[in-house]
Amino acid sequence: MPHLRVRGLPLEDLESVGDLLIERLAVITDTPNSHFTLEYQASTYLVVGGASPAYPFFEMLWFDRGPEIKLKVVQVIEDLVRPLTEVGKDITVVFRDIKGQDYYENGEHF
Predict the structure, then answer these.
(1) For burial by CB atoms within 10 Å, which of 4, 28, 70, 87 has the most?
(2) How many whole angstroms separate alpha carbon 106 and alpha carbon 96?
(3) What is the distance between the alpha carbons of residues 14 and 38, in angstroms, rounded to a whole number?
(4) Where are the domains of the chain?
(5) Distance CA 1, CA 33 (A)
(6) Residue 102 DSSP class
(7) Separation CA 36–CA 15 (nearest Å)
(8) Does residue 53 or residue 86 have the better pLDDT?
(9) pLDDT of 79-92, one tens digit each?
(10) Contact residues for 95 (Cβ-Cβ < 8 A; gap 6+)
């Protein structure tokens, strides 16, 4: 079920690391890689005065696996994306922890 939304990174860069990213996250979370969804979101960042350079922003929707696993996920993302990112540019990772009572698949509650 883990769903990873990515914006602020060129699609070609995400495609270049996507398979390896999912493989590594699957190992860390002990989840089959076929359960992961990787979503690319094209976006434009705006600040006062107009468009602003984007920075990689990762949003993980999942069932909470604890702070140790979160830190490992962040490190995998950092290791794979930092070489693709301008020096000094931020890489942000946000976790959205889903509770079982809030998750339905094909109309069924899990």
Answers:
(1) 4
(2) 21
(3) 9
(4) 3-54+62-103
(5) 10
(6) G
(7) 15
(8) 86
(9) 999 999 999 899 99
(10) 59, 60, 62, 64, 70, 73
Q: Which structure tokens are listed for 94?
A: 């946000």
Beta bridge partners of 76: none
Helix (H), strand (E), coil (C) string for 49-101: CEEECCCCEEEEEECCCCHHHHHHHHHHHHHHHHHHCCCCCCCEEEEEECCHH
Whether the CB-CB separation of 91 and 81 falls below 8 Å is answered with yes
Q: Which two tokens stand for residue 71?
A: 């830190």
Of 1.10.1040.10, 3.40.50.12780, 3.30.429.10, 2.60.40.420, which CATH number belongs to 3-54+62-103?
Answer: 3.30.429.10
Token digits of residue 59: 């949003």
Q: Do 74 and 13 form a contact (C-beta atoms < 8 A)?
A: no
* The model's pTM: 0.89
* Residues 37/41/46/50 CA torsion (nearest 10 deg): 160
Q: What is the mean pLDDT of the chain?
A: 93
